[in-house]
Structures are given as structure tokens and as C-alpha cells.
């Protein structure tokens, strides 16, 4: 241990072996950051905690009766919503700015200006998000006989919670704040067990019943009035590579699900294929080819073989 390490250990009463370990980790961290940021000063990262707070504040502003402060009075609701959105815009603008500053060619002034504009655009799109999500709530009520009320759906249904968070993350994804959108998506995944990449495009009246284990990839496109059950995968069949063996990013590689499709539990649909309008995909089906409208695909019907009963 050199003199600096020993001094740190003595001053802070940290054991010398811990100080030595911390120094080795610092060296590893420094090398990693130099490679990642090509020798320029290490930028600050967005805060996951702040991003999740912003997400929750926006949800509370969209549905203040359900997710606002307990006991919020009707006469105080508008003021609460305005305060929440004002704070959310300020905090979101800073987080977008920090994400933009991670780029090698980032210009600080340009990043700040764009972040402020993007945060404003995000808030302006909340009307559309609210309108769309109300169709999701209605679809859940219409599609689940166990649902007793719309309030129960808003409070309790994981599929409804996941799609609301997806719709918010998707707006940020479209504004270029892809890391922030992904943080929101993974937070939603941890809450609901439903994994929706923020790039996925999802139409109105979308219902995920039960939902655990559902995976929807980045370039998936889902039409109107689509219903999924648990453990459905809308994934990629393969990943294209360039001439140097690197993955080609951003290419359409996930399914297109047209309007009025129902996909039952455990179905796996892979690749840039189209499932035509009004189709029904049975549970456990593995599908890698497109289907015309009105198709019905199921597994082979199992047969029960009963052994003859022999007399004693």
C-alpha cells in the first residue's frame, strides 16, 4: 500500500486492505470509463431513481384519483396535477439532457435546448396517452369476466399497469430519450412481469390478461383490439450481422399483429411476419410464418389412449 492509500485508510478509519481493494477498483473503473468515453471527461449519468419518480408523478397526474395523494379533494385536483406536471417537466428535462450528453459529439448548449423542448413535447402528448389508455381499460373490462369495475382494473390489473407505462416510455423513445424510456420499461417489467420494449408500437384497446412472462420486442407492431395471454412472446427469429460480424441494430425483426387478433398463453411468434386481422393463435403454438386474415392456428389435439380393462 502506498502512502496515499495508508493516509486515506487512517483518516477514515477504513481497514487498509479495504482501501487497497477500493484503489484497485478505481483503476479498473478508470480504464473502463476511458475506453467507453474515449478519454474525454466522464459524464454524469441520468438517475434511475429520479426517472422512476417522474414516471410515477406523471401517472399520478393522469389518474389523480387512483395514484395521486391519498384523500385528494376534487377541488384540489387541478392544482395537484399542475404542480406534478411542472415538476415532472423540470426533472425530465434534466434527465434527457444527461442522456444526450453521453454521446461522443454532444454539444452542451444544444443538448440543454433539445432536452427542454423534448420534455415539453412529452407533456403535450399526455392527452393522447390518456385517451389511448382509456381504451385499454375498457378492453380489459370487456375481455375479463372477473373484472368487477373499471376502478378495479386501474388499481389491480398488471397488464393495464404495464401498457400505461409502455405508452409513456414509447413517447420518450420516439423523442430520442431511449435510455430513459428503457429505464421506465424495465421498472414496469419488475412491477408486472411483463416485458415490453419501449420501441414497440401498440394500437388502442390493447389487453394483456394475467400477463406474467409476456415479451414484446422493440420493432413489434400491434394493431387495434389485440388480446394477449400470459407467456406470449413476440420476438426475433434471428439477428442480422454486418460484414464484420457486428449485429445490425434497428432493423424490423419482430412480428406485426393486425387488428382483432387473440394470442393465447404460451404462444411464441418470431420474426418479421404478419398475423392477419381477426386471427386466433392457440396456446403453446410456435409460429415463424405469416398468416392471412381470419386464420386459426392450434397445436395438434392430444389423444387419450385408454388401456382395456381386463377381467380378474
Describe this structure in words.
The structure is a single chain. The chain is of the alpha/beta class and 312 residues long. The mean pLDDT is 93. The strands form 3 sheets. It has a 5-stranded parallel β-sheet with strand order 1-4-7-10-13. A 5-stranded parallel β-sheet has the order 3-6-9-12-14. The protein has helices at 3-12, 16-37, 48-62, 64-67, 74-100, 108-124, 126-143, 150-156, 158-174, 178-192; strands at residues 195-196, 201-202, 207-208, 215-216, 221-222, 227-228, 233-235, 256-257, 262-263, 268-270, 274-275, 280-281, 286-287, 296-297. It folds into 3 domains: 9-37; 49-186, Orthogonal Bundle (serine acetyltransferase, domain 1), CATH 1.10.3130.10; 200-312, UDP N-Acetylglucosamine Acyltransferase, domain 1. The radius of gyration is 25 Å and the shape is globular.
From the coordinates shown, what is the CATH architecture of the largest domain? Orthogonal Bundle
Question: What characterizes the major β-sheet?
Answer: 5 strands, parallel
The shape is: globular
Number of helices: 10
Give the helix proportion (percent range).
Answer: 40-55%
- CATH level-3 fold name of the largest domain: serine acetyltransferase, domain 1
How many DSSP E strands? 14
- The percent range for strand residues is 5-15%
Looking at this structure, what is the CATH superfamily of the largest domain? serine acetyltransferase, domain 1
The average pLDDT value, as a whole number, equals 93
Strand order of the largest sheet: 1-4-7-10-13
